[in-house]
Structure formats: C-alpha cells, structure tokens
Automatic annotation (TrEMBL):
InterPro entries from the UniProt entry: MoaB/Mog-like_dom_sf, MoaB/Mog_dom, MoeA-like, MoeA_C_domain_IV, MoeA_C_domain_IV_sf, MoeA_linker/N, MoeA_linker/N_sf
Organism listed in the record: Streptomyces olivoverticillatus
NAD in keyword set: no
Family membership noted in the UniProt record: Belongs to the MoeA family.
Protein name: Molybdopterin molybdenumtransferase
Length: 443
C-alpha cells in the first residue's frame, strides 16, 4: 500500500486539461454530497423511538397541566381560617375526615373544623384551601411534631396543626405548568429526554418526526477476517466495518454492519442488491484506489443509468484522498465509497458521511464543531496541495492541542487516543510549535 504522502504528480494541480484528474477541494466534495441529500420523509413514531429525532409538527397541549389543583406535600388539606394563629403550644385541633391519595376515588369534603389527609400529587379536596405539611402537625398521634405520616389508620380521629397556612399554600394550581392550547414544542425541536417527558405528560403517545436513517455498512477486501476468528497468512481483522457502524450510530443512524465482502465484483453487486431494501444510505470501505483488485471502484464506476451512478474522485486531503459518492438503486440511495485505510475511512466518515446523515435527519448544524487551538508540537511534512487531518488530543481547559501518532493512515491506536482532528491547510507544509490551527472536535 502506498503511503499518504504520495501525490506530487502533475495531475494533482488542476490546470484545466484533465478535470477528472484534478484534486477536489474538501468543501466542494461535501457541497456536492449535501446538494444531493434530501431529508427523509417524516413518519409517525412511538415516543421512545423518536428520541434524538427532529420534530416536524408544532405540538399544542390538549389540556392543562397539572390537570387539577393538587398538593405539593404529604400533609393535611385544611381551611385557612381553621389554622390561623396555630402554634405548637396552642395547636388547631381538627377532625380528620378521610384520605385523599394520588389517583384515588371520590375525595372527602373538608368542612369547618375538619382536615383531610392528603398525599403529594393528590387533588385538593372540595372545601379545602391550603395544605399543611405533615411535619407542621402531630400526624394524628397526639404527640410532638411528626416526621412522616402514620399508616392507613390515620384517616380518622384528630390532628393537631402547629402552624398556620395561607390560602393556596402547598397547592400546585391547575394549568400552572401548561394551559390548554399552549404551543409546547415547535417543529424543528430535537427530541431529548425532557421533550419526550413533556410529550408523555400532555398525553401524546406518538409524534411525527424525521426518522433515523438506516445505514448499511459494508467493508470490502479478501484479506479481511472478522474479529474472534484466527488470522491466516496475509490476513487482518476487519476493523473498518466496526468503526463505521459505531460512527453511524454515534451520528444518530440505525446502522447495520454487513460482514466483509470479498474482492469479486459479483459478490459486491449481490450484497448491495440484497442490502438496498433496508438502506437509506450505504457506506463501503476499501477498494477505491488504483490497485488491481479495487472492487468497489471497478463495480460501481460502470453502473447503467438505471442502476445509478457513483463518481470516484481524488480529494485534496490526507488521509482520505480516494473517495466515491453517488446514488444507486431504484430509490437513488446515497452511497459513500470510503478508502480502506482505517484512519482514512474514519476521517472520511467524520467529514462527509456524518454531515450527510445529519442532513437526512434534518439535524443542524451538520458539521462537527471546529475551534482554534495552539498546537504544542511542530508538524513536519504536511503534503503540499492537500489539507491534512492529523489526529490530536485537545484540552478545552487550555485551548491547546497535541498530535498523537503520525500521519500514517494505518495508525489505529493513535486514532483511539485522539479526541480531535488537527487541520493543516492545503498551502502549509510545516508548522512551528505554538502555531494556532483549526481543530475539529470529535466529542
Ligand atoms: N498506487 C497507489 N496506491 C494507493 C493510492 C494511490 O493513489 N496510488 N492511494 C493510497 C491511499 S491514499 C489510500 S487511502 C488507499 C485506499 O485504498 P483502498 O480504498 O483501495 O483500500 P484497500 O486497498 O482495500 O485497503 C487499504 C488498506 O486498508 C486496509 N483495510 C481495508 N479494509 C479494511 C478493514 N475493513 N479493516 C481494517 N483494515 C482494512 C487494507 O488491508 C490495506 O492495508 O490506497 C492507497 N494506495
Ligand atoms: O492518505 Mo489515504 O488518502 O491514506 O486516505
């Protein structure tokens, strides 16, 4: 395999003679992809299936929240005049007329000189104007201040109240959270846990959202063996299909990993045909450079107009120079043919596939966050004319970044230590320690 710093050939400079051979700027490739991606059609999903998705409808509340006046404390529902001036020494002595439990049936009516035991969340019973917490009473025991309610038998007898309570004290008013007809969530909201909770609270069981894209991930290469199996001579474990599936999930997609496909065009064709029915996007790795067995390029360069089209190009970046993108099959499903070198496929996913998946879901922004950071170490030999994405560790506290590993696109251990990509511009071939650079944050 040739290394990443190849490419000083004349064809790398776009001089107008050979458009196919020019190096595509990273932004141009991304713009081409995003220009061909349409957000997925909205569907109605059960609440928990809609987590992380973008709402496409305005949601109004059909009824008030809370739906009724209710107690915010475990205690006694009382009339204000009955507890006026009450102290521990001179308590208000009230007759307990029953219990009001959350979700309970018909509540007792609280008349003058009476109280009803009430639990947090239970409706304020008729006649009552306030709630005194059980800690402000003797809890019906005839002793000192209570720390908790007694058992079920405490729904009768007497209670001594030690403190007064103003009107509506410890009462959560009907509609104090949401009034009927309120716009509670706007179209465009991303549904996180709190939004899903609100939808459930107002009684919505389903919502209309842009769904998560179903992404089929396929690696290619006859040298690939699944992890867990023994390696023979010249074989390596398939790691790309795992990292890309994990990346797709991380981007919000439902990802299906297809085991490695060999280097035969017929096998790849058959696998793609099989998988297309369940894919909103397909991601392949490997087989896109200029080798004798570059199956993806060979198979997908020659599609008929009916089958779709995939363009293979060389980008002005390192790693990730050879790339394919197109749309295939009856639904013109987007297909990303990423280079096989492990770091190249990962970086390509981050820069091109992740934004596309977010665009399919209607999520914004589509790009990872980029910040300026001081690079503590020097960088030598960044390829001229290509934007280099080096792996780095970024410390948000100091705003500094340090390279991890080198530029080699086979260095998976360093990739696993990185939390950022350090961007060395196309026209820069070396950077002094302490220089400020763009850094793409990966977490
Ligand atoms: N003569 C040239 N050779 C190469 C060029 C070039 O311009 N001229 N470009 C190099 C660059 S840059 C890249 S990137 C790679 C891309 O190659 P392919 O996409 O065809 O990938 P493969 O040849 O299939 O594999 C490359 C490398 O990665 C390993 N690999 C592949 N798949 C997996 C996987 N699923 N898990 C782990 N590792 C994988 C594979 O064994 C190779 O070592 O081409 C350069 N060559
Ligand atoms: O440099 Mo390749 O472009 O290793 O991805």
């Amino acid at each position: 395999m040739s290394s990443s710093t190849d490419g000083t050939a004349a064809a790398e400079v776009h001089d107008g003679r050979d458009l196919e051979d020019r190096l595509w700027p990273v932004e141009e490739h991304l713009a081409d992809i995003l220009g061909k991606i349409r957000p997925l059609e909205p569907i109605e999903l059960q609440l928990l299936d809609a987590q992380g998705c973008v709402l496409v409808e305005d949601i109004t509340a059909p009824a008030a929240l809370p739906p009724f006046d209710n107690s915010s404390m475990d205690g006694y529902a009382v009339r204000v005049a009955d507890v006026e001036g009450a102290t521990e020494e001179f308590p208000a002595v009230l007759t307990v007329v029953g219990d009001v439990a959350a979700g309970g049936g018909e509540p007792p009516v609280v008349g003058p000189g009476e109280a009803a035991r009430i639990m947090t969340g239970a409706p304020l019973p008729p006649g009552a104007e306030a709630v005194v917490p059980v800690e402000w009473t003797d809890g019906g025991t005839g002793g000192g201040p209570a720390t908790a309610m007694t058992g079920p038998g405490g729904d009768s007898g007497e209670v001594r109240v030690h403190r007064p309570a103003g009107a509506r004290a410890h009462v959560r008013a009907r509609g104090s959270d949401v009034t009927a007809g309120d716009l509670v969530l706007r179209a465009g909201t991303v549904l996180g846990p709190a939004q899903i909770g609100l939808l459930a609270a107002i009684g919505r069981a389903t919502v209309t959202v842009r769904p998560r894209p179903r992404v089929v991930v396929m690696s290619t290469g006859s040298e690939l063996v699944p992890p867990g199996e023994r390696l023979g001579p010249g074989l390596i474990h398939d790691s790309n299909s795992f990292v890309l599936t994990a990346c797709a999930r991380d981007a919000g997609a439902l990802a299906y990993r297809v085991g490695a496909v060999g280097d035969e065009p017929e096998t790849l064709r058959a696998a793609l045909e099989d998988q297309l029915v369940r894919a909103d996007a397909v991601v392949t790795s490997g087989g896109v450079s200029v080798g004798a067995y570059d199956v993806v390029k060979e198979t997908l360069s020659g599609l008929t107009a009916e089958e779709g089209s995939v363009a293979f190009r060389r980008l002005a970046m390192q790693p990730g120079k050879p790339q394919g993108f197109g749309r295939i099959g009856p639904d013109r499903t987007p297909l990303f043919a990423l280079p096989g070198n492990p770091v190249s496929s990962y970086v390509s996913f981050e820069l091109f596939v992740r934004p596309a998946l977010r665009a399919l879901m209607g999520l914004e922004p589509v790009d990872r966050r980029t910040v300026r950071a001081v690079c503590t170490d020097g960088i030598e030999s960044s390829p001229k004319g290509r934007r280099q994405y080096l792996r780095g560790r970024h410390d948000p506290a100091t705003g500094r970044v340090t390279t991890v590993g080198g530029a080699g696109s086979h260095l998976v251990k360093a990739l696993a230590e990185a939390n950022a990509l350090i961007v060395v511009p196309e026209d820069t071939t070396g950077v002094e320690p302490g220089a400020e650079l763009d850094v793409v944050l990966l977490d």
